[in-house]
Amino acid sequence: MPNPIGGAGVKPLLKRASWSLIDQGLSAASNLLLAVIVARQLDAYGFGSFAVAFLIFGLVLEVARATISSPLQISYSGAPVDQWRAAVRSALAAAVALGVVVGIVLVVTGLLLDSTTGNALVAVGICMPGLVTQDVCRMAFFSCGRAKLAAINDALWIVLEFAALAAMILLGVRAVVPFILAWGGSATVAGVVGFVMLGCWPRFRGYVRWMLAQRGLTGYLLAEQLLGAGLAQVAILIVGVIGSSADVGSLRAGQVLLGPLNVLVTAIAVFGIPEIARRSSMAVRQRQRFCWALSGGVTVAALGYSCVVLLLPDSVGTQLFGDTWGGAQTVLLAMCALYIAVAIGIGPGVTLFGMGRARVSFTLNLIKAPLLLVTLLVGIWQAGAVGAAWALAVTETLMLPLLIVVAMRVMREPPAPVRDEDGPAAGPTVAPGTESVTAISTSAANDRSDQGGR
Predict the structure, then answer these.
(1) Which of 43, 123, 228, 309 could form a disulfide with 180 if both were Cys (CB 3.0 to 4.6 A apart)?
(2) Where does residue 114 fall: left (phi above 0), alpha (psi -120 to 50 degrees), or beta otherwise?
(3) SS3 category, 213
(4) pLDDT digits (tens, 9 = 90+) for 383-434
(5) How confident is the model over 303-362, as pLDDT tens digits?
(6) How far apart are CA 22 and CA 35, in angstroms?
(7) pTM for the predicted model, two decimal places
(8) Which of 268, 434, 280, 271 has its CA nearest to residue 361?
(9) Exposed, middle or buried by CB within 10 Å (0-12, 13-18, 19+), for 424?
(10) Burial class (CB in 10 A: 0-12, 13-18, 19+), 113
């Protein structure tokens, strides 16, 4: 593989941002289509088992990103080629090891259950090493400024996946296990091809030492990830308990409509953080310009798309969501406000993380968690789904000034001196604010079929 550090200048930056957006769009669209195909081919129990398998994959993926992909993406984005390759080999080995350990647990659990869900757990357990490794390959491409290769690898997975799914449909398959094996098996093939594209293969000798060297960073990252995931589950639980299942459906429909903004936010975070991380010598003014360019671009897109959604004719909304459209309409304004607040904060958040301020980010989320919980309780109690949506938007807006002030202060400082023995400073890879977006994107079935990323 060529020099892993992407080119500088406006044109290369725009190209990498575009490929990042393409990659996220491909992933979101394929996940949505996958859910639709599986739902149409299987009965309710089969689809429920598939949803459980997909949920477990999502949870394992978040752990892998916090403990493996994030340190790689941030600590080594600006590292010399030899250090970057060594880190990638260790990260790939860690991904395989994590997938194998989790896979064994899932296979044993599935065999003990001896049910449709148990069979699904066995299947996803077999595929887990490939699923995790493919995602780490993807993040490695982003870390070296090769977003185009990440998109190509994801496209390969999609082609293989849907070719296998088409074969299942033609053969009249109606069991959950073959569909999971088609999905996970194609990811495994794409992951192996990713090794070739990266020019790196897993190196198991020393990978534990590599992971331990990141523990000063991964502790905060994992805690922050669990905090965000916990808030998401609590938010949906409160909506379902205090409100109703119709309230959950209204939030879900609104999130589906605003899914493209979620794709955009995710793509900008994945693109922006390593770009800042690899430019530790960037002048303060340059860093500030980059920060506000990200926020400005995403905010303009969020404002424009929000106007389109809010002006959507009732006939179109009803055709898309049927009886749920009425409830979705009531939460759209609040959810648009939420995404606009997230858009404004994306630049400061990405800059903060790219400079390696894991502890600062975690502190902000510790402040945000009780505030969100209180506003959710009050909002849902008073107005159901509408109150929940406004609680998310208000919390994000209230946290925005603090995020901006902290980020502006950090931008005047040198990058965080958190180093391991092989690489430069490290930091997290999820922008503040995305926890709120995630909260409303979790459905009663807990699938992630329309989110911007596998």
Answers:
(1) 123
(2) left
(3) helix
(4) 887 888 899 899 999 999 999 999 898 888 765 544 444 443 333 334 444 4
(5) 999 999 899 888 887 876 666 677 778 889 999 999 999 999 998 988 887 777 767 877
(6) 20
(7) 0.71
(8) 434
(9) buried
(10) middle
